[in-house]
């Protein structure tokens, strides 16, 4: 008898955060600063030092949030970006977010996506990716970012996905370093 | 209020298949032929033309099965390989399958992995990947395989992941062509 079910649930602390009034999130920097704080909270609750969120671009509305849940869910797929994409698709009822041409979606991630997440983002219909820390910042504390094409940003451009790097990079990197100092599990 | 839950469940028809006695699955070819038939069944139940399975290498025991569930789950992440990896990790209770050095795991996939699945396989602790159809067979019917490094098989070798290609390729390709003839949704 094989396993046939998997239930993904955002952690209770994160649901509580989302039930409170959100801070001002008009600017890219404000959005990134907010998810960096979610990444910091996630560490103290047994998760990895990564968070992500999907916003609708024209309205700036928050669509979904994800944090790294690899350890809590016993699942290596549950990176912050993947969790945010899954929840965005459930929220909108569409596996291709940009299938409604009147809406477009952007993904904020506290660290550049690993090879898996880089592959997942185009399938979800994201048109803009904003990253905090760089690959090398994650590698510095021992995380493996996987085998991405060297020119993945150009490959994204060819798919009409724009990439913004180094948004609040020092603050994003600080969370990675905090995790390393606490000797968090690296995978 | 953001979405906070996602429940993944193998389809009822697949659970029924798994409850029956399995066919003889000693050889690589037998394992691949079996999942190709699961991919064929999946089409008739609203899924994509892809299936995958994880086996423990020393015993040959089936650990988990996955089929493409992008449309049924409204989630672009739910490729056959990802579903099989998630279920294997739930079955073994470990997000890194090879963390017990006495056991190693192989993933059979009816088509070469897309960029997302290529990135996901090393994170799950798979040490051998066996593929049926090639990238170009999937592309021929309109599926996008994403931006993988051109030398991804060599990159896998550097991670001690061996790759077997073209296992039952004609039968695997036939399922893709059957899907195309039925004008199945391509994503």
Structural summary, described in words:
The structure is a homodimer of 187-residue chains. Chain A has 187 residues and is of the alpha/beta class. Chain A is built from eight helices and six strands; from the N terminus they run βααββααβαβααβα. Chain A has helices at residues 12-19, 28-44, 70-73, 80-92, 115-124, 135-140, 152-158, 169-181, and strands at 5-9, 51-56, 62-67, 105-111, 128-133, 162-164. In chain A, helix 4 packs parallel to helix 5. The two termini of chain A are 29 Å apart. In chain A, 49% of the residues are buried. The interface between A and B is large, with 57 and 57 residues. Strand 1 of chain A pairs antiparallel with strand 1 (5-9) of chain B, so a sheet runs across the interface.
Features:
homodimer; 187 residues; alpha/beta; globular
Instruction: Give the strand tally of chain A.
Output: 6
Shape of chain A: globular
Query: How would a textbook summarize the main sheet of chain A?
Result: 5 strands, mixed
Rg from alpha-carbon coordinates of chain A: 16 Å
Total of helices of chain A: 8
Oligomer: homodimer
Q: Are there runs of chain A of 5+ residues with pLDDT below 50, and where? A: none
> Class by helix and strand content of chain A?
alpha/beta
Terminus-to-terminus distance of chain A: 29 Å
- Helix amount of chain A: 40-55%
The spatial strand order of the largest sheet of chain A comes to 3-2-4-5-6
**Helix-strand sequence of chain A:** EHHEEHHEHEHHEH
Strand content of chain A: 15-25%
- Nearest-integer average pLDDT of chain A: 95
For the largest interface, the chains and their residue counts are: A-B, 57 and 57 residues
């Amino acid at each position: 008898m094989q396993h046939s079910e998997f239930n993904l649930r955002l952690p209770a602390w994160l649901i509580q955060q989302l039930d409170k009034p959100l801070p001002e999130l008009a600017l890219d920097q404000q959005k990134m600063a907010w998810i960096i704080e979610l990444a910091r909270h996630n560490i103290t609750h047994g998760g990895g030092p990564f968070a992500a969120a999907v916003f609708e671009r024209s309205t700036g509305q928050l669509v979904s949030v994800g944090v790294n849940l690899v350890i809590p869910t016993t699942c290596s797929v549950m990176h912050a970006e993947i969790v945010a994409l899954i929840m965005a698709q459930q929220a909108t009822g569409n596996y291709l977010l940009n299938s409604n041409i009147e809406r477009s979606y952007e993904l904020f991630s506290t660290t550049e996506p690993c090879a898996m997440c880089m592959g997942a983002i185009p399938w979800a219909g994201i048109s803009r990716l904003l990253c905090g820390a760089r690959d090398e910042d994650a590698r510095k504390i021992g995380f493996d970012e996987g085998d991405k094409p060297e020119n993945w940003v150009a490959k994204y451009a060819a798919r009409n996905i724009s990439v913004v790097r180094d948004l609040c990079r020092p603050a994003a990197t600080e969370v990675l370093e905090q995790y390393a100092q606490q000797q968090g599990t690296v995978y």
